[in-house]
Amino acid sequence: HRAVMGVSNLEKYNEDWINNLKGSSAIVLKPKSTEEVSHILSFCNDNNLAVCPQGGNTGLVGGQLPVFDEIVISTELMNEIISLDDNSGVVVCQAGCVLESIDNILAEKGLMVPLDLGAKGSCHIGGNVSTNAGGLRLLRYGNLHGNVLGLEVVKANGEILDCLSTLKKDNTGYHLKHLFIGSEGTLGFVTKVAMQCPPRSKHTNVAFLGTQNFGKVLKTFKKAKQDLGEILSAVEVIDSSTMEFIDEKLNIKSPIGEYPFYLLIETSGSNESHDTEKLNTFLETALNKHFILNGIVASEPAKINTIWSIR
Ligand SMILES: Cc1cc2nc3c(=O)[nH]c(=O)nc-3n(C[C@H](O)[C@H](O)[C@H](O)COP(=O)(O)OP(=O)(O)OC[C@H]3O[C@@H](n4cnc5c(N)ncnc54)[C@H](O)[C@@H]3O)c2cc1C
């Protein structure tokens, strides 16, 4: 269906993921192409009809929900991969592609999306761009201002802006794309995204560590950056009250007992023995210097997922 109406059908578009906010839109439109988005927006603009862009509806601050009865324009049907160049690692796709689906397609070419977040199975790349989503790999790959090479956007009056460059070393100015990254649909509707994607790492290790105080967390973080260098792919900090909350609500316990602070450190690279040796040397130093008190390391996918589930 290209237009959704009726209270029960509209529920999933009018409520957010945590059932915290509720809008009262009476219609959701699902364009398939940039031209359709352009026609919808120019009609709404001419007739003073308010609109609300929506991707995967995983936003946690409600920007994707109508405040009153705005027309929701969903990217659900804009889910085509337009091109994938495995030499440059550049993927061009429509805004409604689900992040995890893009990642699965990239995996076949030995590539990966440069951002990863808990909502990856539902969020759309257009929503990620519009929120400048950070996620778990920001430490290694940077944010979307760097990874998005180009955008196609439809302005509120229906005009199509083609900034869909696929060139990484583009030294020309001005880069209008930056205005749309993180602007939550206030300046235009993102219809296509060109994004650079790094090679997929062959080997991953995850360490889960306990520390005495936040000062030691910072020391461990600094040492991890110095010692692990290019293989460091993620660092997360969890304090004891968050861990208690996770235990109470999700029945997930710390695998190393109780500590005031915990650190999750992930490495990923191309050489298993080199990466593991580097991580072990770092952990030994951190233990000897009393930056950390205890820890475990996982390298099998199931165990890695168990540790990541705490995050
Ligand atoms: C379990 C979970 C984990 C999460 N983890 C993270 C995290 O680690 N880091 C992080 O940054 N966020 C995180 N989020 C928040 C959320 O997933 C991100 O903000 C995500 O980028 C939103 O994408 P979406 O497609 O769901 O967008 P939506 O929620 O549908 O929309 C978000 C905003 O973007 C606008 N928008 C959507 N599509 C377009 C478009 N095509 N053109 C213009 N505007 C548009 C909407 O109007 C709205 O303002 C998490 C959410 C959940 C539920």
TrEMBL record:
<dbReference type="InterPro" id="IPR036318">
    <property type="entry name" value="FAD-bd_PCMH-like_sf"/>
</dbReference>
<comment type="subunit">
    <text>Homodimer.</text>
</comment>
<dbReference type="InterPro" id="IPR051264">
    <property type="entry name" value="FAD-oxidored/transferase_4"/>
</dbReference>
<dbReference type="InterPro" id="IPR016166">
    <property type="entry name" value="FAD-bd_PCMH"/>
</dbReference>
<dbReference type="InterPro" id="IPR016164">
    <property type="entry name" value="FAD-linked_Oxase-like_C"/>
</dbReference>
<keyword id="KW-0576">Peroxisome</keyword>
<feature type="domain" description="FAD-binding PCMH-type">
    <location>
        <begin position="21"/>
        <end position="200"/>
    </location>
</feature>
<dbReference type="GO" id="GO:0071949">
    <property type="term" value="F:FAD binding"/>
</dbReference>
<keyword id="KW-0560">Oxidoreductase</keyword>
<dbReference type="GO" id="GO:0005739">
    <property type="term" value="C:mitochondrion"/>
</dbReference>
<keyword id="KW-0274">FAD</keyword>
<keyword id="KW-0285">Flavoprotein</keyword>
<dbReference type="GO" id="GO:0051990">
    <property type="term" value="F:(R)-2-hydroxyglutarate dehydrogenase activity"/>
</dbReference>
<comment type="function">
    <text>Catalyzes the oxidation of D-2-hydroxyglutarate (D-2-HG) to alpha-ketoglutarate. Also catalyzes the oxidation of other D-2-hydroxyacids, such as D-malate (D-MAL) and D-lactate (D-LAC). Exhibits high activities towards D-2-HG and D-MAL but a very weak activity towards D-LAC.</text>
</comment>
<dbReference type="GO" id="GO:0005777">
    <property type="term" value="C:peroxisome"/>
</dbReference>
<dbReference type="InterPro" id="IPR016167">
    <property type="entry name" value="FAD-bd_PCMH_sub1"/>
</dbReference>
<dbReference type="Pfam" id="PF01565">
    <property type="entry name" value="FAD_binding_4"/>
</dbReference>
<dbReference type="InterPro" id="IPR016169">
    <property type="entry name" value="FAD-bd_PCMH_sub2"/>
</dbReference>
<dbReference type="InterPro" id="IPR004113">
    <property type="entry name" value="FAD-bd_oxidored_4_C"/>
</dbReference>
<dbReference type="InterPro" id="IPR006094">
    <property type="entry name" value="Oxid_FAD_bind_N"/>
</dbReference>
<dbReference type="Pfam" id="PF02913">
    <property type="entry name" value="FAD-oxidase_C"/>
</dbReference>
<protein>
    <recommendedName>
        <fullName>D-2-hydroxyglutarate dehydrogenase, mitochondrial</fullName>
        <ecNumber>1.1.99.39</ecNumber>
    </recommendedName>
</protein>
<comment type="similarity">
    <text>Belongs to the FAD-binding oxidoreductase/transferase type 4 family.</text>
</comment>
